Amino acid sequence: MLDGRSAEFIGQGLKHGFAGGAVIGKDAHLDEAMGIERGIGFFFDGSGQAVTTDHDHGIEVVRVGTVNFALGGGQLNLRHSRIIGESEAFRYMKSAVKSSKVNRAWLNDHVNDTYVKLAKKDGYRARAAYKLQEIDDTLHLIRPGQLVVDLGSAPGAWSQYLRRKLSPKSAIGGGAAAGELNGRIIALDLLPMAPIEGVHFIQGDLREDAVLAELAGQMQGQLADVVVSDMAPNLSGISSADAARIEHLIELALDFAQTHLKPDGALVAKVFHGGSYDALYRRFRDTFVTVKRIKPKASRDKSAETFLIGMTLKNR
Q1: pLDDT greater at residue 33 or residue 106
Q2: Do 258 and 153 share a structural domain?
Q3: By CB count within 10 A, which of 134, 193, 243, 306 is most buried?
Q4: Residue 270 a catalytic site member
Q5: Options 270, 295, 302, 314, the catalytic residue
């Protein structure tokens, strides 16, 4: 699986180098492939061919020699020798997984996934929008007039949801996807993100002082009402190293919240069950008066992700 900033492989026949039959999301930015939930998950047959993807969008297949990357270096270069359409890709992948009932079942589940279909219907860039929506519907965090900071924003589904929540209600009761905006949204990601009207996007690494200063400058001295973080780390496949990387990104979000969040504000952060989970939960409890744990229905059943929501800062 190619994750947020690097690569990990699941299946047989591949070492770091290249994928023989890579699958990417239709109409996706090439770099968008590097998001954990919003990116690529390669599933391989016995010959080492990538036969399906965990992407939220449609499906395309890119032929041999497609993927070259620097493991841990945050670089993913895609070279298209041929891209085929969704229906042909489906036939290709169906034939490629005849020997694997598991892969065939997964592909069928993905194509028929309720949230994939909803995302296409509602105009969201990824099904991840419904994770934030469920959290918001439960806790009522996002309201017009707020300043919201979206960390790890690419490809932009969370920013799209925020944009609609901060828009005047339309005649049919939903927020507008364009036009007047009541509030401000600042988004940040290491990867590029296509523009969203009313969303100020900064491409950069939150770990860098210059990027953090630019983000703080865009806030114009105002504290955030809500910070949402869908940041995902480089994965090496070494559990202890990966746990440390996950913990570090959540620590960055927590540190940012402690200095740039209103006292009664909220932080929503994606975390993963594993070696660092208990420590991160304790850190949330040390930082916020109220901490909630939510695994939205839109999270895939087999995904280790869950979300920690901290509300009202302590010691402020």
Answers
A1: 106
A2: yes
A3: 193
A4: yes
A5: 270
